[in-house]
Design a protein that fits this description.
Layout lengths: L1 E3 L2 H13 L4 E6 L5 H13 L2 E6 L19 H10 L4 E3 L3 H4 L18 H4 L3 H16 L3 E5 L3 H13 L5 E5 L19 H6 L2 H14 L5 H13 L5 E9 L11 E11 L2 E11 L7
Parallel strand pairs: 1-4, 2-3, 2-5, 3-4, 5-6
Antiparallel strand pairs: 7-8, 8-9
Helix pairs in contact: 6-7, 9-10
This protein binds adenosine monophosphate.
């Protein structure tokens, strides 16, 4: 595996690969890698010839007072893990080269960026869409891999790629969890022992929401209230939101129908954790 920092150097290496007919896959990350990130890299390894993973803690997607400076970093360990997962090129750009000041151009995706995480973190998805657009322009991947763990981010990136005609297939990958259900996240490192023990309540609550939909509940408020109550019963959890939304538009269907996603954000001490699960309401049978 090669580790590169400069944009020009990366471009010239990948130009050579593409000229030789090789397909480039991209896995964007903010580093502090865990098995969720590595699952994306392994999938890219099976589907593309040259796997590029990027590590960049993108300042544009952090709001004032968020954890940009505290965000965990360990590039040496990340290098060893990425190498073992089959990454060919680790791209670790410098902030100065990514954002020569001042940044006058940003990419914002309307509607799907607005609810849920977008309501809690107003400039977050413009920061994400901008850095992903830049990475697409720098790397020129034919496929790019994103985790369902950050489901709204996946929807935003898909829409951005389609609206701006990036010649890249956006591939969504399933959420990797701890045995007790907690979704892997770099931010889990903020949890105290007690918070870590409490945190699986989020997945348990989302699963209970799915079960009630499968049992026939079609009122979105009833489902989100059930999820919220389970989370709020945990003293260490501070609920930000629990919602059930359409998996494509991220709007709340009433009554519930089609492909749904139950989404939650919960603060445990210093850690703000997000998670989601999917469920499909079967179409009514004809002719009864
Ligand atoms: P991050 O470093 O948090 O920006 O994440 C980089 C990529 O890894 C994003 O596409 C995330 O959705 C994905 N990812 C993070 N955690 C997980 C997980 N537990 N399972 C699957 N993918 C994940």
């Amino acid at each position: 595996m090669k580790t590169l920092h400069g944009i020009a150097e990366l471009r010239s290496l990948l130009d050579g690969e593409r000229t030789a007919g090789r397909a480039v896959g991209l896995v964007p990350t903010m580093g502090y890698l865990h098995d969720g990130h590595l699952s994306l890299m392994r999938q890219a390894r099976t589907q593309t010839d040259v796997v590029v993973a990027s590590i960049f803690v993108n300042p544009l997607q952090f709001g004032a007072g968020e954890d940009l400076d505290a965000y965990p970093r360990d590039v040496d360990r990340d290098g060893r893990l990425a190498d073992a997962a089959g990454v060919d090129v680790l791209f670790v750009p410098n902030t100065d080269e990514m954002y020569p000041t001042p940044v006058l151009t940003t990419v914002s995706v309307a509607q799907v960026s607005e609810p849920l995480e977008g309501a809690a973190r107003p400039h977050h998805f413009a920061g994400v869409a901008t850095v992903v657009a830049k990475l697409f322009a720098i790397v020129g991947p034919c496929r790019a891999y994103f985790g369902e763990k950050d489901f709204q981010q996946l929807v935003v990136v898909r829409r951005m790629a389609r609206d701006l005609s990036f010649p890249v297939q956006v591939v969504g990958c399933p959420t990797v969890r701890e045995p007790d259900g907690l979704a892997l996240s770099s931010r889990n490192s903020y949890l105290t022992a007690g918070e870590r023990e409490a945190a699986p309540v989020v997945y348990r609550a989302l699963r209970a929401g799915v079960a009630t939909v499968l049992a026939g509940e079609r009122d979105p408020a009833a489902v989100s209230t059930l999820v919220a109550q389970i989370i709020e019963a945990e003293p260490l959890a501070q609920l930000d939101y629990a919602e059930v939304v359409d998996a494509d538009s991220l709007r709340i269907p009433d009554p519930l129908a089609g492909n749904l996603r139950l989404m939650a954000a919960v603060q445990f001490g210093r850690a703000r954790l997000i998670d989601n699960v999917g469920v499909t309401v079967p179409a009514p049978t004809q002719g009864g």
